[in-house]
Amino acid sequence: MTHPLPDILAVRPFTRPARGGVALPGSKSLTNRALLLSALCDGTVTLTGALFSEDTRIMAEALRRLGFGVEEDEASHRIRVEGRGGRIPAAEAELFTGLAGTAARFLTALCASAKGGVYRIDGVAQMRRRPMRGLLEALRALGADIRCTGEEGFLPIEIRASGLRGGPVSIDASESSQMLSALLMVAPLAERAVVATPVGGLRMPFVRMTLRQMAQFGVAGASGDEACGSLAVDPAGYRSPGAYPVEPDATAASYFAALALVAGGSLRLDGLVRADRSLQGDVRFLDVLAKCGAVVQDDDDGISVSFAPFGRRRGVSHDFSGFSDTFLTLAAIAPLLEGPTRILGISHTRRQETDRVAGMATELRRLGQEVVETEDSLEIRPRPLRKGVTVETHGDHRFAMSFAILGCRDVRGDGTPWLSIGDPACSAKTFPGFFGLLDSVRAKSAET
């Protein structure tokens, strides 16, 4: 259930160590990919454990506007999609992507792959500033007619579809690997093999996730050597797996994993699996927490994260280029760690929902921290936390959730709030029930 939230939310600290299990929502990245792949299948697919959030609702509604049957059952976390074997039923559609980067990029590729039709895609003002150029140029090179009706390289766009011819294509996905993922997912629909060569640098974990999901939907994925460059995808048809289970969201797990470090105690992240078994690269954040002093253990029901009462919370230096959505979680709790924390490999996050590097530096400084900011990194040098601050979220869900975890530390020692979150409702973009779940963990932890 979603939790009604005020415009400014005072975070109540934990007065006892955290304990219990945490039922995490489904992965946003996996849910939105699975929605697209299901629509391309030759039959009906039922997603189980699916995420229901702003981003996934935007994707589901766009598919309905394109003529696909999509039935959502939020109570059971199920979404039923009627695949059309690579065809788009609607010959014309207006699609709105809000601030959902996955939806904007995946739908652009999907519409460009259609054999015919006219499709217009737009988003909110912030989405109109998020990079699309690399994907648009690659699709054009494969024969797509895509017109930017505003600024070149950004939404809004109009697509006059006539299919994709395939062949060799270069794609600059350095600003977002979602662009390469989008291209790869529709590549099997092209007339001949697509041989995609990334240029300009690339973060591969989410691309590997995409290829592994494609295989789960019956397409073997790409052949080739990713270290050398090109990835080849042959023409093929997607096959329905029937039921498709969506993994719990590893990025969402990062907040509650960090909570165990912040408040002490032990939390079990229900259903989460380690990196060797997960599709999600963000589970590697648990390794970072272990370096900070947390104890991370596999459990029959998930993964447990704990922190001993007299343990040391250590600052770390780590490259987050492969799982950058979680860097904000570490940055927000860095004031509680002993010694400086260096976060590297994050320049691309300046072009996400907001400039995440600059925004994080700004909010930490407002909390009294010393921060050294470069184009690609942050170094946080802990100082006494300034109390009575309202953290601005910059319209970014991950700011709201990351700083809420910091606020769970009983800084005053009497259980009274010392930190507030502005616009906490922006967390609904990927985790509508976050603050309600945090309250329930706090209440359970307070039980004697």
CATH architecture of the largest domain: Alpha-beta prism
CATH topology-level name of the largest domain: UDP-n-acetylglucosamine1-carboxyvinyl-transferase, Chain
User: Taking Cα atoms only, what radius of gyration do you get, to the nearest Å?
Assistant: 22 Å
Number of helices: 12
Number of domains: 2
Strand order of the largest sheet: 2-14-16-15
Assign the CATH superfamily of the largest domain: Enolpyruvate transferase domain
Mind explaining what this structure looks like?
The chain has 448 residues and is of the alpha/beta class. The chain has helices at 28-40, 54-65, 101-112, 133-141, 178-186, 205-216, 250-263, 285-292, 327-333, 356-366, 397-407, 434-446, and strands spanning 8-10, 21-22, 44-48, 69-73, 78-82, 92-96, 117-122, 145-148, 157-161, 167-172, 194-199, 231-233, 243-245, 265-270, 295-299, 302-307, 317-319, 341-344, 370-373, 377-381, 389-391, 419-422. The chain is globular.
